[in-house]
TrEMBL record:
GO biological process, one term: base-excision repair
Keyword Transmembrane helix: no
Protein name: Putative 3-methyladenine DNA glycosylase
Family annotation (CDD domains): AAG
Organism whose genome encodes this protein: Deinococcus ficus
Key words, A-Z: DNA damage, DNA repair, Hydrolase
Length: 210
DNA sequence: ACGACGATTCACT
DNA sequence: GTGAATCGTCGTG
């Protein structure tokens, strides 16, 4: 029963460390949603960001994370949803329970279940299907109440591990949509992928302090 | 109870 | 590129 499955899955214990390293390492892995009937919706992770309180200005300066006790209580390796502008965003809790650290999955390259995803989220241009954090949640038909707080190797939503991408295939940039913490290079995406979020081009050229 | 504020998206110009 | 919609969360009264 405990023999390794192939392809191997990410397990909760894999998220006990630094969310920045984890976000980088997650690129290339596959996010799989298995519908009740057994149909698989899957996408390759091509963009991810890290959040890491309290050293993260995006959290501390703001009173934001501090009071979201429900999110902070989530143990590492479990799914959670941050909401912004009314949209639920899929993340994985990192470090340890009680600490607000996480990886935000920002974009996918659709691999399986394209028809169903298009049904969930009708779009004109195919590339708009999953090229944003709230878009991929909609395309996969994820509902926070059902998924939040479940482990990353759950039957309904799990992660299939891929070999780490070489540095040459990864672009590191500042995070998107923040006021504070813009100087931190905590966003990663697959170089040249047409499936990353539209905000990418300008961010690529951003100069980061050392 | 009320108002301000986004870890976004969409429709425009 | 600019601006509006949107709604749950959080701070204040």
């Amino acid at each position: 029963m405990t023999r390794a499955e192939f392809p191997s899955r990410w397990h909760p214990a894999d998220f006990a460390g630094d969310p920045v390293l984890t976000a980088r390492r997650l690129l290339g892995s596959t996010l799989v949603r298995t519908l009740p009937g057994g149909v698989r919706l899957a996408g390759r992770i091509v963009e991810a960001e890290a959040y890491d309180c309290p050293r993260d200005p995006a959290c501390t300066a703001g009173r934001f994370h501090a009071a979201r006790s429900a999110e902070m209580a989530i143990p590492p390796g479990h799914w959670l949803f941050w909401t912004a502008h009314g949209h639920p965003l899929l993340q994985v809790a990192c470090r340890e329970a009680g600490v607000s650290a996480s990886v935000l999955i920002r974009a996918l390259e659709p691999l399986e279940g394209r028809e169903v995803m298009l049904d969930h989220r009708p779009v004109i241009r195919e590339r708009d299907l999953t090229n944003g954090p709230a878009k991929l949640v909609a395309a996969l038909g994820l509902h926070p109440a059902q998924v939040s707080r479940t482990p990353v190797d759950s039957a309904g939503l799990h992660l299939e591990r891929a070999p780490a991408l070489p540095d040459a295939d990864v672009v590191t940039t500042a995070r998107i949509g923040l006021r504070e913490g813009r100087n931190l290079p905590w966003r990663f995406h697959v170089r040249g992928s047409p499936w990353v979020s539209p905000a990418t081009p300008s961010m690529d050229l951003l100069t980061l302090p050392d």
